[in-house]
C-alpha cells in the first residue's frame, strides 16, 4: 500500500520580478502533489499581478508583504504562516518540473529526515547548475557523486549536505525549532548555514529527480548576463558565516571565499565584461560588505512561532496526463496552438521543435504553461557525447522524451 505524502507549503520570496514570478506560479499549479499550498512573500505590485493571474485560474495563494532587503527574514515570514508538514523553497526566477514537490515530500516519509534538496538546471534547461554537494565550516562546497534515487546523509556542525536555496525543503517543525534562516545572512550562504545547523537534528535527503529550472534573472545585485553589480552582501555573508562556523579562519591573511570573489572580478575584467572602473567599484563593495559582516550583531536564534491558519490547498494540483507534441520549425505556429489547447484541457505538455541542424538544445517553460524544447535534430541536448550525430526525427523525439520522462508525465 502506498503511503500518503506529507502536505507541502511552497514559500516563494519575490522582489520586483512579476513576470518570472507569474511563470513560477503557473508551473506550481501543474504539480502532481495533491496537497500543496503557496505562501508568497513579495512586494505589492508583483504579488498583485501574479495573484490576479492565479485567481483567474481559480487558484489562491497566501501573501505576505516582503520587506525587500533580507531573503532570510522574508523566508522566515513565509515559514511562520506555512501550514504544510513540509516547507519547500523556490526562487521567483525558477520553475519546477511537475513532479518536484512530490519527489521532495516523499523523502520525509522517513521520520529521520529533516531536510531535502533536489537538482537545479541552468539557463538552457538541460545542464546542471547545482547538483549534490556538502558544505564545510569555511563555506566551501564539496561535490558528492550522486546521480539518481533518494539518498540519506548524516552531517555534522562542520560538514553537511547543502540544501540549495532555490530547490530545498524542510520538516516544518524542525525548521521552526531551529529558528529558521539566520537573518544575519541577507543574501548568500543562508542555505549552507541552515544545512550545518540542522545536521545534528537528523538526516538530509538528496533527491536528484526533484528538478528545478533556474534562470538567474536580473536583480539589484546582478545584470541580466549574470555579471554582479555589487558584492556587498556576498562579502558580508562570508564574514558572518566564518564568525558563526569557523572563527579561527578570521586570523588568516587570505580567505579562500574572498579570494574567489576577487578572482571572479579579475576574470570578468579579462573577458571585457567589466570596465576598469566597474571592476574597481565591485572590489570596493566587497571590502565594504566584509566590514559590515564583521560588525553585524550575532546571537542565538530563538524558535519561530507558527501562526495557526487554514491550509490554503492549491486547486487543480495532482496527477495529470502528459502529452508530447513534435514537429519542425516551419510547423511551430500549429505546434504551439496544439500545446496551448492541451494545457487548457488539463494536460502536462512537452513540445519538441527540432530543426534539421546541429544546433544545441534548449528547454524553457513558456508563459502559456507548456515545456518547449528547441534545437537541431543533429545537435546535442545533454552536452555529453559528440556535438553532431546523424539520427532520424522519430528516433530523436523518442530519445528526448525518454530523457524528460523521469521528471514530467509524457503520456
From TrEMBL:
<dbReference type="GO" id="GO:0016757">
    <property type="term" value="F:glycosyltransferase activity"/>
</dbReference>
<dbReference type="Pfam" id="PF00535">
    <property type="entry name" value="Glycos_transf_2"/>
</dbReference>
<protein>
    <submittedName>
        <fullName>Glycosyltransferase</fullName>
    </submittedName>
</protein>
<dbReference type="InterPro" id="IPR001173">
    <property type="entry name" value="Glyco_trans_2-like"/>
</dbReference>
<keyword id="KW-0808">Transferase</keyword>
<feature type="domain" description="Glycosyltransferase 2-like">
    <location>
        <begin position="9"/>
        <end position="143"/>
    </location>
</feature>
<comment type="similarity">
    <text>Belongs to the glycosyltransferase 2 family.</text>
</comment>
<dbReference type="InterPro" id="IPR029044">
    <property type="entry name" value="Nucleotide-diphossugar_trans"/>
</dbReference>
<keyword id="KW-0328">Glycosyltransferase</keyword>
Amino acid at each position: 500500500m502506498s503511503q500518503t505524502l506529507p502536505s507541502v507549503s511552497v514559500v516563494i520570496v519575490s522582489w520586483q520580478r512579476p513576470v518570472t514570478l507569474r511563470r513560477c506560479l503557473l508551473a506550481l499549479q501543474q504539480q502532481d502533489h495533491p496537497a500543496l499550498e503557496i505562501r508568497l512573500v513579495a512586494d505589492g505590485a508583483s504579488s498583485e499581478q501574479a495573484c490576479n493571474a492565479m485567481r483567474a485560474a481559480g487558484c489562491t495563494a497566501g501573501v505576505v508583504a516582503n520587506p525587500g532587503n533580507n531573503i532570510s527574514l522574508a523566508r522566515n515570514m513565509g515559514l511562520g504562516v506555512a501550514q504544510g508538514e513540509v516547507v519547500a523553497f523556490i526562487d521567483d526566477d525558477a520553475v519546477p518540473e511537475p513532479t518536484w514537490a512530490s519527489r521532495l515530500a516523499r523523502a520525509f516519509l522517513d521520520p529521520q529526515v529533516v531536510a531535502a534538496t533536489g537538482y537545479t538546471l541552468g539557463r538552457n534547461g538541460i545542464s546542471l547548475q547545482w547538483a549534490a554537494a556538502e558544505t564545510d565550516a569555511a563555506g566551501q562546497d564539496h561535490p558528492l557523486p550522486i546521480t539518481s534515487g533518494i539518498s540519506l546523509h548524516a552531517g555534522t556542525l562542520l560538514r553537511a549536505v547543502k540544501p540549495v536555496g532555490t530547490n530545498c525543503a524542510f520538516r516544518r517543525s524542525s525548521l521552526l525549532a531551529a529558528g529558521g534562516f539566520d537573518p544575519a545572512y541577507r543574501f548568500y550562504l543562508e542555505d549552507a548555514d541552515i544545512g550545518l545547523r540542522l545536521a545534528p537534528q537528523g538526516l538530509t535527503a538528496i533527491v536528484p529527480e526533484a528538478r528545478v529550472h533556474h534562470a538567474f534573472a536580473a536583480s539589484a545585485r546582478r545584470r541580466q548576463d549574470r555579471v554582479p553589480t555589487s558584492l556587498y552582501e556576498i562579502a558580508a555573508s562570508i564574514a558572518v558565516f566564518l564568525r558563526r562556523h569557523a572563527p579561527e579562519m578570521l586570523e588568516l591573511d587570505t580567505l579562500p571565499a574572498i579570494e574567489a570573489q576577487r578572482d571572479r572580478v579579475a576574470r570578468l575584467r579579462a573577458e571585457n565584461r567589466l570596465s576598469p572602473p566597474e571592476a574597481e567599484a565591485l572590489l570596493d563593495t566587497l571590502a565594504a560588505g566584509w566590514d559590515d559582516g564583521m560588525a553585524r550583531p550575532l546571537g542565538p536564534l530563538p524558535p519561530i512561532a507558527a501562526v495557526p491558519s487554514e491550509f490554503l490547498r492549491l486547486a487543480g494540483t495532482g496527477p495529470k496526463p502528459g502529452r508530447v507534441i513534435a514537429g519542425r520549425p516551419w510547423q511551430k505556429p500549429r505546434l504551439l496552438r496544439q500545446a496551448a489547447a492541451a494545457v487548457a484541457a488539463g494536460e502536462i505538455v512537452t513540445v519538441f521543435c527540432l530543426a534539421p541542424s546541429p544546433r544545441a538544445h534548449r528547454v524553457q517553460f513558456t508563459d502559456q504553461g507548456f515545456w518547449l524544447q528547441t534545437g537541431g535534430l543533429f545537435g546535442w541536448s545533454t552536452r555529453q557525447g559528440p556535438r553532431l550525430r546523424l539520427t532520424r526525427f522519430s528516433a530523436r523525439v523518442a530519445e528526448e522524451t525518454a530523457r524528460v520522462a523521469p521528471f514530467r508525465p509524457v503520456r
